[in-house]
Specification:
Strand content: 15-25%
Largest sheet: 7 strands, mixed
CATH class of the largest domain: Alpha Beta
Oligomer: single chain
Mean pLDDT: 93
Strand order of the largest sheet: 18-17-16-19-15-14-20
Radius of gyration: 23 Å
Structural class: alpha/beta
Number of strands: 20
Number of domains: 3
Number of helices: 16
Low-confidence stretches: none
Length: 434
């Protein structure tokens, strides 16, 4: 077996970044007889060095150098590598093809129809819904991509699948030159990741690459309010927010839940026009597809309801959480600032019943200045935020952990942050699980 990319055999490729994606790309390449090398910005762990040595993969760590490009036929980027990286620019100067992991997957193997979802918020929840809906219709449709399992890991079994459901981030789309979904879904667009993209226009341009290569045989699904901003490609257009008839009987859902479900149903309708969505048990599907750390009821302490929304890594997600929460709120905010969107959060806080805001982490000072009209209390970390929040809350209140910031100041990711929050809550005297 050989690694064939866009019809050409490839023997030597440089994999830039060695996280989950980089490891998957290396495994994919080696399994097909190619010889990858790795360039990693950080210092590798002992386990990572042992893994690379076991596969006979050369590597550099602690920074990228152009010497790694010598004799390389292509470069494959991990999502965290920006297109402005000197290594990427060096590859382009040498005429070496630069691909995303999504590109490598679709250029190397015959793929079934791909349903790809992007947007600022709700991507993971929506791909999980699509996957569960398709499963209920009897299709084999793995959910992959930014949600956890790289698309490249599904490439070997793609021929046995009816479809692939892919969560695509702006980082991945920014890098991609060949990725074309049969159904592309853009959920929303709010300020986020400006530390990477620089401006909202650049962020929007990255998101819009989802549609760029689509043809008239494909479908682009997006909200009508964004239709004039995303004109890329030649796909048939569907405005999911104008298809609310699909949601009959789902009035109990919050606004963002309704959007996610409607977009998911539109995607399934585009892929499977003969499917009868009315016959599906939507309540059970929603429960099955629910993901952790997304408006999850943890339990209660002395009749204070506690909600874990650690996945709210930007201000827009916290705005949605506030809109979905009734009654007095003690809000836990903090982490690493995303740099934008917090003025809209301040407006949403003014429209909510806020008893107190507990600020923690790296962004506490910035948020304190912005939110000085509200009762605020700064604390050093999540555990202290739980203590302070429960001291401020009264019976009937909601303690809402919806940080509006990334977790990278103190945690590996939002999931670790959510687990620390949940453990701190469960350790409180009088805790009652949900």
């Amino acid at each position: 077996m050989s690694l064939r990319v866009a019809g050409a055999d490839v023997e030597r490729l440089l994999v830039v970044g060695f996280g989950t994606t980089g490891r998957a790309v290396c495994r994919f390449a080696v399994d097909r007889g190619a010889s990858p090398c790795v360039s990693e910005q950080r210092t590798l762990t002992g386990e990572e060095r042992a893994w690379l040595s076991a596969y006979g993969i050369g590597f550099e760590e602690g920074g990228h150098s152009e010497r790694m490009l010598d004799r390389m036929e292509m470069v494959v980027l991990s999502p965290g590598v920006p297109m402005t990286s000197p290594l990427v620019q060096g590859a382009r100067r040498r005429g070496i093809s630069v691909y995303s992991e999504l590109d490598l997957a679709v250029l190397s193997d015959e793929m079934p129809p791909i349903v790809a979802v992007t947007g600022t918020n709700g991507k993971s929840s929506t791909v999980a819904l699509i996957g569960e809906l398709l499963r209920r219709w009897g299709l084999e449709a793995p959910v992959v991509g930014n949600i956890g399992t790289p698309l490249i890991d599904a490439a070997g079994r793609a021929s046995r699948c009816d479809a692939l459901v892919v969560e695509a981030s702006s980082y991945q789309l920014e890098q991609s030159v060949a990725f074309r979904p049969y159904v592309g879904v853009l959920l929303n667009l709010e300020p986020d990741h400006l530390e990477r993209h620089g401006t909202m226009d650049a962020y929007a341009e990255a998101k819009g690459r989802l549609f760029r290569l689509q043809t008239a045989r494909d479908t682009a699904i997006l909200p009508g309010r964004l239709a004039d901003r995303f004109l890329q490609g030649d796909a048939r257009r569907v405005h999911y927010d104008e298809r609310k008839a699909l949601l009959e009987g789902s009035e109990r859902l919050s606004g963002h839940q309704r959007d996610n479900l409607c977009a998911a149903l539109c995607a399934c309708e585009a892929l499977l026009p003969e499917g009868d969505h009315a016959a599906l048990p939507i309540d059970r599907i929603l429960a099955t597809a629910a993901l952790p750390h997304r408006m999850v009821a943890v339990g209660a302490v002395e009749r204070v309801r506690i909600v874990d929304d650690s996945k709210a890594t930007n201000a827009a997600a916290t705005v949605a959480a506030l809109a979905a929460t009734r009654g007095p709120i003690v809000l836990l905010l903090g982490g690493r600032s995303k740099g934008a969107g917090y003025e809209a959060l301040r407006d949403a806080l003014s429209a909510s019943e806020i008893r107190r805001i507990i600020l923690f982490g790296e962004a506490a000072g910035q948020l304190s200045d912005l939110l000085d009209r509200f009762p605020i209390e700064p604390v050093p970390d999540v555990e202290a935020a739980v203590r302070a929040g429960l001291e401020a809350a009264r019976p009937g209140d909601t303690l809402l952990f919806s940080p509006a910031c990334s977790s990278f100041d103190q945690f590996r990711d939002f999931a670790e942050r959510g687990e620390v929050f949940a453990r701190a809550v469960r350790a409180r005297p009088g805790f009652a699980p949900a």
